[in-house]
Amino acid sequence: MASDESKTPISSKGSSAYLMSIVRTLSSSADFEHREQEKTRIEKAFRESDKRLGELVANDYQNVTKILQSFSKMTKSINDSREKIRKIKEDLSSCKTLLHFKRDELRKLWRDGVEHKAVLSMLEQIEQIKEVPDKMDNFIAKKHYLHATDLIVQAVAKLEGPLAGVDALRDLKVELISRKETLHEKLIEELNKQIYVRAVQTQSMQRSGSARLSRKDASVWGLTDGTSNNAVPSRGAPTDPNKSGVHSEVTEDLNQDPTENLTHFINILMESLFVLRKLPEAVEITKMRIEPELLSLVSKATQQIAESAGQQSDSLAGQSEPRHLLDLLQLIFQQFRCIAATHQLILNDVRRLTTSSMPLHADVVYDMKDVWSNIQAVLQVLLSEYLDVRNSLSSRQQAPSDFDEPTMDISMYFGKKRPGKPKKVTLFRFDASLHALSTNSYIEDTRQFDASDVGQQSLLTLISKQQKICKPSAFNITAIYKPLKAFIHDIEDAMESTAGLQEFITDFVQNAFLGQVHQRVSQSIDVATRVDEEEGHKCFDALRNVIDEKVRREMGVPRPLLQSTVTVDESIGELQELMLALPDYADQFLTMVCNVLREYRDKCHSAYRDIVQHGSDDRRVISAMWAKDEDISRFLRSLPSWHTLQPSADGKELDGTVCSEQEMRALNSKEAIILITNLSTDETLIPQQEIITDVTQMRTVANVHESLEWFASRLQQMADSLAEQSRPALAPDLPASELPLQVIGDAVSVSPKTLESLRSLVKDFRDLAEVCLLLLHLEVRVHCFYYLLPVAKQSNYAGPIDDLDPDSNVLKLNKDLSSMEEVLSQSLQPKKFKYIFETLGYLVASIIISSVQFLKKINENGIKKMCRNILAIQQNLTNITMTREADLDRARQFYELLYLSPDDVLTSIAEKGPQFTGSEYDHLISLYHRSHPGHPIPVQEARMKRLREIMEKGQSETV
């Protein structure tokens, strides 16, 4: 422990404490031996400390020497400093005594120095004041208006304050005060220039220039802060009115162009007006100049569009070129958006700078609603001129108000026709009444905007005097509706309320445009379906007028179409384009489409009825009655030949081989049986008035079929497209009856009820087209009955002379079939032409075979004549169908059986099997007995009985 304590360095205070501890230990100890041990220990520690000290001194001798020398120098310096301080105290005491004796002289010198400094400062201010005009001119030239404003305000304040008594500055004072009073006019003019010129020009450069802006163009719209070190601090107002607790300074950099940043430059101008205390006056003037500046802007934009069109304004005003109006409005919309944005900056600065110490009067302050109201007022009057609102309203034709009509059965058009009611004559109309004429003041009665000084009438006068870039017309709305709608949407977002311009457009479309569209379409349809008064019948010319070959090739249609159908289709196409151009009124246009289609459908049915009906008589041609007969029509539509005419789902034609030859023969036989059953009655011939004798009317029916089928397919495509666009994307499986009326993006949307009406009309046109085709199919067959029934009922086939020519009725039939083939091949597609004339040979053969019952007698000459009749018809049908009509060979073979005796015929049937029906063999045997009256009746009955036995045996063997 002693060794540890000896190694520990001990300070002077610690040494004394240690020594006192040793003394207390020795004095308090009563044991001598203990004191001796303590003494020995202390002595030993002392010797070790002494030894250690000697070693340290020996090792650090040089350092100890340096320390002693430094200590000596410090002691000497301290002594010298004490001597100098004592001497200074003595000198200061002496100076104090001397200054006390010269106190008055020193006070005088101090006063003279203060006076000279004040005079020098005043001279410097005078020199600065003299430089103010030049500096101000320099600032204004460089558009550093905030520096110029601060300079003139400070200069006038000095001239009216500290320098008020300087007579030499009197003229300069008058000049500076005058310049201060007129500076705000320069600032207001510059502010309006930035609103209506600078912002618009910058926007135009962005519209016509490259996609990437330069740094200078970008800074105009606030993409650079425009701050720097050489700036004038603002008056400590918040920049953002919504953040009243956050303040920022409006600065002006003398080393930069202040006009680079439009937002910052407007802040500078408003700050300068605030410093001049002319902010209320500037706000009032800015408010009053909104409408005149907008009118001027419209005039400049019109001139710009006219120059870009490269034509004289007079020639443009007479052309119907709505694209120029679209370009004008797009340019104006973009400029008006920039102007509104600039006004928003100004209003933000007004709110930022307006304080309780400088409130603005309520009549002076304006807001963005005032700006947008003036914009709408100018646009409304501009649109009134280009949309020709006054003339459109005064000459409008109201569309029918009730567009809904109940579903009508197509059979009503084929039923008994009621006597026509006499046409009502209009005694008077209300179009010229006071109530109707009052609509001419539509512009004045629409929503008024805040334009107390310049009203709507003055606006109309100013704009009407401007040059026009296109001919005013209500139909100009189609080209501008969508961009106009987008701009109105921007206005409503900014105003947070319904725009008056929207009300104007809505009223115009509903009260003027829709009526004009309806009138235009109605006139087009009336011209296309006008009644031919000179012909003496009600069939309108359009059913006889078809498009020429050039138009047909351009349209890409296989056969000629009715001019009326093409005209109606063009009108429907125009309405469909209007649905796309004005999607908000798609349902109204679709209703108009349905009205047009109903009117045309009625006229087509009326024309069809005039063809198949005999004047005022209720009787119709046989084919028309059969075509409307549900049973016959259903049967004919079920035949494979009919199905081959219908396009498949993928648009390809169906294969004609849908059934076997035996099945086809069975179906043809059934058709022939139905026709023969209805037409081949005893001793009854078909009257001439019950067939279509004029082959041109058959061409008309064929044209109607092709036209309405083509028209129905186009209407179906339109209906499918509208249904697809009207179906919401989120509910693709929703039934059409549950779909709401809405607009999805730019796609049109219509009500399910109107769309269902369109589909119903499509079905009506398709049904009429199919009825026309069935009519042609049946009419050709009725003609065969008309000419072939007299062949058996009226001709003599038991004459003594062999007549080498066919029967006259057969020749008439061949001529009639050739005429029908000529007109129908030009009017119908090949597959439909084939449908009409195919299986005709089987029917003719069936008619000739069944006619054997009407022959009274026949001999070999008559059999030859009948075979010549069959051969003549077969050759003619082969030329028409371009296929050999083998079915007529069967008819010829049937009559050649008359060369044989009935017993031979029966033997052939028993050996080879029956080739004809039992009833046909019955008629054949009966004719043989009528032609050979020498055979007794029992023989005939026996032969008939044997025939039935052979036929029954053949049937049982077949089974």
Give a quick precis of the structure.
With 959 residues, this protein is mainly alpha-helical. The protein has helices spanning 2-7, 12-28, 32-59, 61-101, 103-141, 145-160, 170-208, 215-220, 262-275, 279-288, 290-309, 313-317, 322-353, 368-386, 389-394, 434-437, 442-445, 456-464, 477-495, 500-528, 549-555, 563-581, 586-612, 622-628, 630-638, 640-643, 661-679, 695-726, 752-793, 808-827, 830-837, 840-850, 860-881, 886-896, 902-912, 918-931, 937-958.
Q: What is the strand and helix layout of this fold?
A:
Layout: H1 2-7, H2 12-28, H3 32-59, H4 61-101, H5 103-141, H6 145-160, H7 170-208, H8 215-220, H9 262-275, H10 279-288, H11 290-309, H12 313-317, H13 322-353, H14 368-386, H15 389-394, H16 434-437, H17 442-445, H18 456-464, H19 477-495, H20 500-528, H21 549-555, H22 563-581, H23 586-612, H24 622-628, H25 630-638, H26 640-643, H27 661-679, H28 695-726, H29 752-793, H30 808-827, H31 830-837, H32 840-850, H33 860-881, H34 886-896, H35 902-912, H36 918-931, H37 937-958
